[in-house]
Amino acid sequence: MDEYNINKKYESVKIPERQQVQGEGTANDWPQRKNAEPISFEGETYYEIEYDSCPMPGVGKFVMKSQKIEAPEKDEKRELFSQMRELARTSGSTYDYTKFYNRQVQQDNARIFYKQGVFMKDVTDDYPGNAQFSQYFPYYQMMGYEQLRTYFTWRTEVRKGKVTDISLSYAFLYLYELLGNIGVSDPQDGLNQLMSFWKAFSVYNKSIDKYVLRWLKDYHIYYDLTHSFKEFIQKNNLTRHYPKMDGMDDSFSLFCAVSKYDIRKSTFFAGDNVSLVMDCFCFLIKKLRQTFENNGIHFEEAIFQPTKKMTEWKPFKDALFYPWKKQPDRQIVLSESEIYICNKNKWSFSTVITSENGRQLIGYLMKQMEAALRTVTNYKYKLTANIDTVNHEAVTKLKKAGLSLENIINNAVGEFYKEMTKTVVIVDQTALSRIRQEALVTQEKLIVPEPEAQLLSAVPVQNPLDFAFTAKEDMLSELLTETIQTSQLGPWESLKSMLTEIEIDALSVVLHSNSELKKYADECGIMLEVLVDGINEKAMDCMGDNLLDEEFVIYDDYKEQVKELIG
């Protein structure tokens, strides 16, 4: 352990003397390297250096010669991408690769994505490369230079209608743009481009199908489009993907399910009347919606109500979507189990329920519509609906506006039935050709021997062909004129022109004393049933309904018009 003794004494050691170099000590007197080979610097990067003299012998300094620095070539795309990224830096982005699943991160990323997307909405590119890209919830901020150029080049071609295969993350990025209406003129244009891209890209990768099908429904809820979602899926043959919507005939099934009166259980709802009722209901609902809206009443809100416990709803689940559009307060009923409500630009979801008043209101609409249909179709059994059983503020508001819900329904049904059963007069062009052929035959029959023709020559007579054809045309003209004049008259004027004097007197007898009708028919030598059927048939042709019921009594709805007719 002596080597670690701190008290150990060290002896001094003599430093060897420095060896002297012969000569004067100049650089020329230094030992020369024998057989030195030249050193090559080919292919190496180096600076050109100058050895400068110094006052001190054997000492010098290196001096770097000035070099010309070339300016790098300007890259406009890189500068554009930098400006885009600056939006994220100045907007408080919480961007984090590892927390893409975090809800707050997704919301922040969606906000940044929308801002950057609007900034880049018109960018085009022609990059020759093809950089791969794979990322959950992709957006511009996580993409490198080559990936951005690849995407915008591909998007340029897609907007021209040339959809090609590419990394799936690029496809979802483009879908996110369309959902946010980035680069489209309006929501309808966005929907058209969404459908076009989906159909084209699905050929390469069907994994987008399940997302797009879900987003299409959200698109119709979030954006206020002119058509309904049901009309959209029917037009595009997508009903198999939305089974709950397939049976919704303008919400006919939904209204029947919540109505106090289910018209589907009626004996009238059978055979050809099924389509009649459903079509008429569709027509009636459109009329009612417009009438209610004109009087400050929301039709759906008058019928449906959500459950008390509402669930927050965000459109376009599993998409990077920023709710950029300010939404008006409204509610959308899609099916018996789906109602979406927007209140102060926030959406909520619930199943559908109806209040007792709402069930009464829709029940009355259904029943009164059927009653009116039974009347215009001359159904053997009549039906009545009592408006007094409905205790709904919508009815009260309509009354204050001077409107009767019963009259609104009856008028709508009458308008629908008249349009459905109207007679269209069509002139058969082949009939004119036949008339000309018959005129030629008539001409041949009118040709007489020459002497008689000379006797007749003194009298100015039309050409026989002209005479015959003119006669036929006059007959046709009178027929068409009569038909057109009849069609231009109102239904009651037309009926009056068709009724005989006996039939008009019969209506007068019924109106004043029904018991005398049989006696009047006997006096005229006509069976009572034949007389009544003749009147009803003409009434059906003119106004689509009978005047007399099975008891030979004039319907109350038409008594005033009959009084004017016979007066």
How many domain regions? 4
Give the number of DSSP strands. Answer: 8
* Binned strand content: 5-15%
Mean pLDDT: 79
How helix-rich are the residues, as a percent range? Answer: 40-55%
The low-confidence parts are: 452-472, 483-487
What does this structure look like?
The chain is mainly alpha-helical. It folds into four domains: 167 residues, no CATH class; 127 residues, no CATH class; 43 residues, no CATH class; 76 residues. Helix content is 49%, strand content 6%. It has 22 helices and eight strands. The chain starts with 48 loop residues before the first strand and ends with a helix. It comes from Anaerocolumna chitinilytica. This is TerB-C domain-containing protein.
Question: Layout of SSEs?
Answer:
Blueprint: E1 49-52, E2 61-64, H1 76-89, H2 103-119, H3 145-158, H4 168-179, H5 187-201, H6 209-222, H7 229-235, H8 243-246, H9 252-258, H10 273-294, H11 299-303, E3 304-306, E4 311-312, E5 330-335, E6 338-343, E7 346-350, E8 352-354, H12 356-376, H13 393-400, H14 405-421, H15 429-446, H16 450-457, H17 464-488, H18 491-498, H19 501-512, H20 517-523, H21 528-543, H22 559-566
Antiparallel strand pairs: 1-2, 3-8, 4-7, 5-6, 6-7
Task: Write a concise synopsis of the structure shown.
This protein has 567 residues and is mainly α. It has helices at 76-89, 103-119, 145-158, 168-179, 187-201, 209-222, 229-235, 243-246, 252-258, 273-294, 299-303, 356-376, 393-400, 405-421, 429-446, 450-457, 464-488, 491-498, 501-512, 517-523, 528-543, 559-566, and strands at 49-52, 61-64, 304-306, 311-312, 330-335, 338-343, 346-350, 352-354.
